[in-house]
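In response to the reviewer comment on reproducibility (Comment 2.3), we provide here a single inverse folding case reported in full, input and output, so that an independent group could reproduce the run without further information from us. The structure tokens appear first.
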């Protein structure tokens, strides 16, 4: 029996811990810092260590004889937690800091893609505002403006006019609106087409793609309102089919793993490729070096294989020895967020109805929740993801919305169109 640590405290980490806690190989599961949802799982304890405390997390693994550490968010990966764990003799599911630069530095990622002949949008990198503005004035098109570093999903501006693009350049390079994440920027050719994401378990050489999921970034139904971390997801996504996933596997994932392997820095963990399907074929928009949130909450419900076996195989370079199987049905995750999300914090308010939603066949994953005076409260941000499966997306969605209807907290926001129309799938 193994002891497993999951690092993180959001809905994605609750979903991963939920699947790991069902593995007969897992005798004990620690989650740092976790949330009230992870605390309630079988054989699971939350540990009050923050995801930024790499030394503290390594010490925790040593103290508790952790056999496998699963890293949820990007920041500890970029800070080198997997390298520090390797030095301490602890196996980890997640890429090294060198590999995590594919997400942490868009300038590095772009160079990597171009050097290895992997299709992507053309881009120029700038650190000097004068040079960036002069370049902007000299080009006929309006490029996408991207902060190179980690900016919590906010560092990409898709301007419609040159003036708007110049404003974004100044905000990043002159006003330093994104701090050190915006010390370098990319001015990138704008791509047109359908956006798809392909996520894959990777063991350094081999990979196994997850079922395609569609995220919903905007706050309100019909893709209106500000961008968020994601308000819901469903799988399978009509934007992707097996042929396209195969093509992206051959043209993007396989050459990425091969190049990192040749460099002596094999990629182990989850690789998330965000792509635009253009008239010239798929092109990479970005890489993430971790699972998506809330895509994971939807997709994990369909995993038939043992997540511990799959993750341990990735960590040890032996994915060839396991089959990764998924139930051939549909799954939907609907996010319930607090009143101020995504702009303002919200005061804690009590939540009712989670048990009733689960009685309807939903699985409810926690994120911004806390226990106050013994009662479950919404503490801000994205609060819960209500998930349900069904024979098709419409059935799964109908069941998930019955769960949402059972749950209440003052000011709760959710989108009414997750998996109900072609929401989020742009032509
Ligand atoms: P994210 O990086 O997830 O915050 O979001 C960036 C979003 O900006 C993507 O999901 C795309 O919709 C858009 N985007 C990024 N790069 C490009 C590009 N080169 N052309 C068109 N849209 C882009
Ligand atoms: N839902 C998008 C992401 O996790 O980056």
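Designed residues, in position order:
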């Amino acid at each position: 029996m193994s002891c497993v640590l999951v690092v993180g405290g959001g809905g994605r980490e609750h979903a991963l811990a939920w699947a790991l806690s069902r593995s007969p190989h897992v005798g004990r599961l620690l989650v740092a810092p976790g949330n009230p949802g992870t605390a309630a799982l079988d054989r699971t304890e939350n540990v009050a260590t923050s995801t930024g405390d790499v030394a503290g997390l390594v010490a925790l693994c040593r103290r508790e004889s952790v056999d496998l550490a699963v890293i949820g968010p990007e920041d500890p990966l970029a800070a080198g937690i997997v390298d520090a764990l390797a030095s301490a003799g602890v196996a980890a599911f997640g890429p090294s800091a060198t590999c995590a630069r594919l997400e942490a530095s868009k300038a590095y990622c772009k160079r990597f893609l171009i050097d290895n002949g992997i299709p992507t949008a053309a881009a120029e990198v700038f650190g000097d505002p004068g040079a960036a503005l002069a370049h902007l004035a000299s080009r006929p098109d309006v490029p996408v403006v991207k902060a190179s570093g980690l900016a919590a999903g906010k560092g990409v501006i898709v301007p419609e006019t040159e003036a708007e693009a110049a404003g974004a350049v100044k905000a990043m390079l002159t006003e330093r609106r994104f701090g050190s994440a915006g010390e370098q920027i990319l001015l990138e050719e704008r791509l047109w087409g359908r956006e798809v994401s392909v996520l894959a378990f990777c063991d350094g050489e081999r990979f196994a793609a997850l079922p395609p999921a569609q995220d919903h970034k905007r706050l309100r139904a019909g893709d209106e309102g500000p961008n968020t971390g994601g308000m819901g997801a469903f799988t399978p996504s009509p934007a992707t089919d097996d042929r396209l996933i195969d093509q992206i596997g051959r043209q993007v994932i396989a050459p990425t793993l091969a190049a990192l392997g040749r460099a002596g820095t094999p990629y182990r963990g989850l690789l998330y490729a965000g792509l635009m399907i253009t008239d010239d074929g798929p092109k990479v928009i970005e890489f993430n070096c971790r699972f998506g949130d809330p895509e994971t909450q939807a997709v994990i419900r369909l995993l038939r294989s043992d997540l511990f076996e799959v993750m341990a195989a990735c960590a040890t370079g032996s994915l060839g020895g396991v089959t990764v199987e998924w139930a051939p049905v549909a799954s939907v995750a609907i996010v319930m967020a607090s009143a101020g999300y995504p702009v303002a914090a919200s005061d804690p308010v009590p939540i009712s109805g989670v048990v009733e939603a689960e009685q309807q066949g939903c699985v409810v994953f926690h994120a911004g929740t806390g226990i106050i005076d013994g009662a479950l409260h919404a503490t801000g941000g994205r609060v819960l993801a209500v998930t349900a499966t069904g024979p098709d997306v419409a059935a799964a969605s109908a069941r998930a919305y019955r769960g949402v209807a059972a749950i209440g907290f003052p000011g709760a926001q959710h989108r009414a169109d997750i998996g109900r129309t072609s929401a989020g799938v742009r032509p």
